[in-house]
User: Fold these one by one.
Assistant:
Number 1:
Amino acid sequence: MTTAQSLRATTKAAGGAPAPDAASFPRLPASWYFAGLSRRLGGGPMLAEFGDRRAVIFRTAGARAAALDARCSHQGADLSRGAVVADAIRCPFHGWSFDASGICTGAPGVCEVPPFARQRAYPVVERHGLLFAFNGERPLFPLPFFEDCDPHDFVAGRPFRFIGDCPWYVLASNGFDVAHFQSVHDRRMLAPPRVDEPHRFARRLRVPWEVTGDSIFDRLLRRFVGRTVDVTITNWGGTMTLVTGEFRRAKSYIFIATAPWHTDRTEVNVIVFAQRRGPAWLDGVSRQLSLGLRRLFTQGFLRDDIERLVGIRYRPERFTEADAEMAAFYRWLAEMPQEDRLPCSDSSSTSSESAESGAGRRGA
């Protein structure tokens, strides 16, 4: 294909406009990020990093999880090395204290607290024993969950983490690269993809696939849960990807949280979910078995991607007609806001509490 033909294909694939260049993507999208495990707060404050952000997360006396910029606004000491005192985090260096909103509540030896003595606060949601922080003053959308599902009806498995050797936006596009499902995962597409945007900050792709691979995982899938699977992939804000796979005899739920990790690498945390079923005593046993199997199969499936994404870079000038959905996704992704230029947020998402309350039933 000539350069001119490639550019025409790119324009066609992107819905009438050229695919964006790499500089168009936000450096750190205004979105939700995985921040860690709730149980780690039991021993005091903890450090969470997403992109170039460093946040201290602590639990107040009222049991609320709070997140602030980890560098003290006084002299830059690391607040994650400090101590929690009542509802505030106390700096380990000069003893200045900051409450959950970032306001300085105490500065020993200072007659009047200076105006600069304030920490940036991040909205936090705690769910399923997991912590999530939003990179912005207010959430632009609720912490997402699987469509038409209530988070309280599910349990989460232990997250597993890997570093992708590619830019964050390349990894985010992986689910919309429909061509790779055949070549990498041995899936045969049974109908054209259906793509829509259920929310201002969400893009969704739905495709039915046939499992055609010869791996042990695929043979077990065909034998016990079904040969075909209806897959729904929804990306929220560029950093959160929710995947459901509906087989004949089972349904999978996978939550993928990504964050930029240096220039051309991406941190990925993957969480599998299972529905609560049966009496409490049986549920405890069966759900652990279910989560363990789901985690094992998900790791096996994603391992193929991890190995092949090594060194992948963004090359929009080489898109073809087969890359249509991926090119369109990139165009959508380039419109995601950077934290320092936020649009007006939804009125329903003005705090971490409102974000959590609206996350389940609305398919978010």
Note: Residues 151-349 form a domain with the Naphthalene 1,2-dioxygenase Alpha Subunit; Chain A, domain 1 fold (CATH 3.90.380.10).
Number 2:
Amino acid sequence: MLLLGIFLLTADAFAQERSKRAQSTMKFLSVSTNARATGMGTAMTSVESNAAYAMLYNPAALSRLPQNIDMSFGMVNGIDGIDYNMAAIAYRPGDGRYGVFGLNFVMADYGDIDETILSDGQKGYYRLGTFRPHAYTAGLTYSRALTGRFSVGGNLKYIRMDLGAGTSALAPDGSLVRSDYMAETIGFDFGVLYRTGFESL
């Protein structure tokens, strides 16, 4: 009992020293923009697809594209003017002897948002105007069937999120100090797909 009490006290002490963790950004990347994928709860990683949108879920699923060219487009109208748009094109040269190549683009438009600062007035804030944050990713895809059952694929993408300019401080002369809030990075996805041959799994 004594050991249990000591353990609980030290666990609480360590918990108080922790800083915020597991923060995330670029959440627009997890929004599904395809009706079929959304209807399946985005459980598309193990589904072999004959459409270009598959590269956004598992690039290996594109390896057995039956036609030489395929295009997919999608749009989600979210709440409060937030829109998500997707475009993907897949190309299979030489009847698939060289694999399948693809281009994809996903964009999130968060609409107009009021920009405010704290104020001593009745409302408690002062409206400076509006800003329109947005984010997008553009990627290249390659997918290939290595055997009759095993496929691999990958995405290389540029990701950018722009929250616009905002007030970051108040200068000594009373003017507002403006800062740009933007982040960009390179990302990649790698996927595999294996047909077990058992009950279509």
Note: The radius of gyration is 24 Å.
Number 3:
Amino acid sequence: MAIMLLVLEGCRWCTTDACLEHERIALLHLKPFFVYRNPLQSWVEVKGSDCCKWEGFECNTTTRRLIQLSLISTKWEDNWEYGMDNRNLIVWYLNASMFLPFEELKRLYLSGNAIGGNLENEGFGKLSFTLSNLEILDLSYNYLNDSILLSLSELSSLRYLDLSYNQFEGSSHLRGKLSLVRDNNIESISNQGISIVFIY
């Protein structure tokens, strides 16, 4: 009886409604890159803290794994500030490998973060196998250029990709670059510098 109680007590600690600990730690590694405007105060370094309740975070209610991460306009008050005098704003390069722990991620919103591209050999292509559920990727209002397109084209699960307000050569050029690498049905809507690409 004592052994049975001990086993039951152990199982009580095996199941939890909180997020997975390794995903919580991975989020904390991301935090320093996204706190320019928003301090993300709910992202705390407390073991066992439920990151499913953190700002910008949405979990699968069954597995408690991350399915949506929203880090929008951390460099500007809002996206209307994009294109204004931002001489004090530092363009930085993303290490996409930092998203690898989030294996069930479906939606990733990184709009308005002054991202200039990926670190060398750390592009979005590294996520193609691990993040096989990623369907929505929003990279609008950044400083991306054509160099990122090859790695983006490797994300075969994408259904929606927003690249509006970046530094690409043009919407027709953008469509061509993506089509050369993957045989997708791509519809591009362009108007006054806006380039939104839908992948079906």
Note: The chain has four helices and nine strands.
